[in-house]
């Protein structure tokens, strides 16, 4: 069972491409989840992940990554959950929580910045924060969220557009600094 090989390609070419795509995804997920990803799944994709990623299109992988960012969950997806996010139409994707989660406005804004940054990175634009700096990014973001929460509150009705924009700029600057310093 496997993909039909085109003219001029060999099985090892297909295998190499599948591994490159899986490692690309692995790095993105490590950037998103940091040590949680590494602790749960290790530093390299196993054969099961490589085969699953090989069965997905680039557009499906991008869609799953975007959905993970929008979901904003703290826990990495399992392989079945990732494939579900990549394969299902929006109306049939289950969220990871059953009740409405409390709104963390600052996390939601940070997720939007991260989502935008991920799109730029996938398109070859701005770099994501390197994996070895992801823990530093998480700590810097946690401190930034705490400061803005103290200064402006965390309920959507408490916030001005200026406060949200200032927070977005600071998150972008932090990500730029961490990516550039690498």
Characterization of the model:
There is one protein chain. This protein is mostly helical and 182 residues long. The chain is built from eight helices and no strands. It has two domains: 12-98, no CATH class; 102-182, no CATH class. Helix 1 packs across helix 2 and helix 6 (105-122) crosses helix 8 (161-180). The longest helix has 23 residues, at 11-33.
List keywords for this structure.
elongated; 182 residues; mainly alpha; single chain
Query: How many helices in DSSP terms?
Result: 8
The class by helix and strand makeup works out as mainly alpha
What is the global morphology? elongated
For the secondary structure, the number of strands is 0
Distance separating the two termini:
41 Å
Strand content: under 5%
Average pLDDT for all residues? 76
- What percent of residues adopt helix (DSSP H or I)? 55-70%
List the helices and strands and how they pair.
Layout: H1 11-33, H2 35-41, H3 47-54, H4 58-71, H5 79-87, H6 105-122, H7 134-152, H8 161-180
Give a short summary of the structure:
About 65% of the residues lie in helices and about 0% in strands. It is mainly α and about 180 residues long.
